[in-house]
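Protocol step 4 of 6: structure prediction from sequence.
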Amino acid sequence: MSEWFGSRSRRILTRVSAAVQLIDDLTGLPVKGSNARVWIEGHKPPIKKSDGISIFTDLPAGEHTIIAEGGQYARTQVPFTADDKTCGNLIIRLLPNKLYPVSLGTVRIEGKAFPDAAVRVWSGDKSGALKLLHDAKKGSGVIGIYTGSDENIEGRLLKIASSDDKGEYVRVTAAVNKERSEYKLSGELTADYPKIGTAVIQVCECRADSSGNFMLLIKKGGGTLVCEAQSPADGKLIQKTIDIGNDTYVKAELVK
């Protein structure tokens, strides 16, 4: 009598939870190779592809913080909500740090704010603002934005401001349909915004260190800059408008 011994193979299924693309905030180009890394504390490192996209697998459902930084890029932290069924596509824009090569077309902004405060800077000239393609509705997580150029706004923080003093910050996570200029937001809108009379302003954001020092490098546009800092301790907000003219260096004191 002969005996046959069979073997069983175990199939291990891996679920793709998030695909993260890092982008240079100044150039709008992908950051590839070893110039920057991305991770989630307490989770295994992502799989990095040749095109610069990092793939996170088998994330537990719920809230996570994705962290990214590089030799010439400041550390950036972006919240991400994972679920068990879909893969989230996320664009993270990396801000230059003090090691970033400065070009003639940039302005360096340094200053003091509340410790660990969120610091936001945008152009005071609304003539260069982006436009809504149609009315944006409260609760919507997708909006249509006309840029008027090939500029990449994926991952960008935007300030939506209507003529009736409604406004909020939203972050573009990725393009839903580039041909139709439709973009997915990191959250849902908290108010209605009409197409006519609403300005969509691109915002540069960084975080002050534990001593309140901050630095931003932005594209030079002339005119005025609006600088804002918000205390994480009590929510106190300080905002100043600075005329930069032809300056390439600006000092902004956002504390009282």
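Step 5 (inspection) to follow. The chain has a mean pLDDT of 87.
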